[in-house]
Design brief:
Elements lengths: L1 H25 L4 H22 L3 H9 L3 H28 L1 H9 L4 H30 L4 H29 L7 H16 L1 H9 L3 H6 L2 H5 L1 H14 L5 H22 L3 H20 L1
């Protein structure tokens, strides 16, 4: 439909306009820094998309039989899963952004690390608030509003990107002008996410806003001890090789998921999630 096309066009504009603005307003040499940061943040998005994408036919089927109770349950479960996956990954990338750039492309990419930090925060908030809402709206055939909102966000993003890039480059130096791109992206897509999409979806599926917000409290609280562990690891065992970074990231991630499983889940939730894992293993063995 025209609205699906409009949504895809707006999404591409939001994600890809940055390099064009940097090359036009600043200099082509700064495009590389943004491209490096955008590549890494895009990998996180792909991870989340692979998990969330399978929910679209589920929402469609449940909407067809008007089972809003199961829609609410599925929506909350997937929202929580997104945060549980994206939050520790985002935290590790932010804390180790300098080391990631050093391992990947060498020294001298401090600007790329700064851009990466802002992009990851922006993208995490987008996962938190907007990603699954878009999937649900497409699944139930109510993506008209989503397309219009994203189109407005794309226009706002373009205006802010040009303006902030110029302002920051004048005030702090031309090399830092590139920071205006992720800041503009955050103000546009996260602003729309905060103001419109979650609450619009909650109204459609008759989900109480308080219940929606409470769904995120424990996943966010449990990141605190994991963040402390990450800072200790960075201080005493700063990674300078890929294998070391991967191992340290795994330790931090499994620590977070482990303490959340032990102390953040009820007995019923533990049994349910173990059932999901068993079904996944059995399905893979049969394939």
């Amino acid at each position: 439909s025209i609205f699906a096309f409009l949504n895809n066009l707006a999404a591409q504009g939001l994600l890809n306009i940055g390099s064009l603005v940097i090359g036009t307003v600043l200099s082509v040499e700064f495009v590389t820094y943004y491209a490096l940061a955008n590549k890494i943040s895009g990998l996180i998005l792909q991870t989340v998309a692979a998990i969330v994408g399978i929910s679209l036919p589920v929402f469609s089927a449940l909407w067809a039989i008007n089972d809003k109770e199961k829609i609410r349950f599925t929506y909350l479960e997937i929202n929580k899963a997104i945060v549980l996956i994206a939050l520790p990954i985002s935290m590790v990338v932010i804390f180790f952004s300098e080391q990631i750039m050093e391992i990947w492309v060498g020294n001298g990419y401090h600007l790329a690390a700064l851009i990466l930090n802002i992009l990851v925060v922006v993208m995490f908030i987008d996962y938190f608030l907007g990603y699954i809402t878009g999937i649900l709206l497409f699944g139930i055939g109510k993506h008209k509003a989503l397309s219009l909102v994203n189109a407005i966000a794309a226009i706002i993003n373009l205006i802010l990107a040009i303006g902030l890039t110029k302002i920051i480059s004048i005030k702090y130096g031309i090399e830092y002008g590139a920071l205006g791109i992720p800041i503009a992206l955050g103000l546009s897509i996260d602003g729309i996410g905060l103001l419109v999409l979650p609450w619009y979806v909650n109204r459609i599926i008759e989900l109480d806003n308080t219940t929606y917000l409470k769904n995120f409290i424990k996943p966010v609280l449990f990141i605190i001890p994991a963040a402390i562990l990450a800072l200790l690891i960075k201080h005493y065992y700063e990674p300078h090789k890929l294998i070391v970074f991967v191992l340290e990231s795994a330790v931090i991630g499994f620590f977070y998921w482990g303490i959340y499983y032990l102390f953040g889940l009820t007995k019923g939730e533990k049994n349910r999630y173990l059932g999901y894992v068993r079904q996944f293993i059995i399905r893979n063995e049969n394939e």
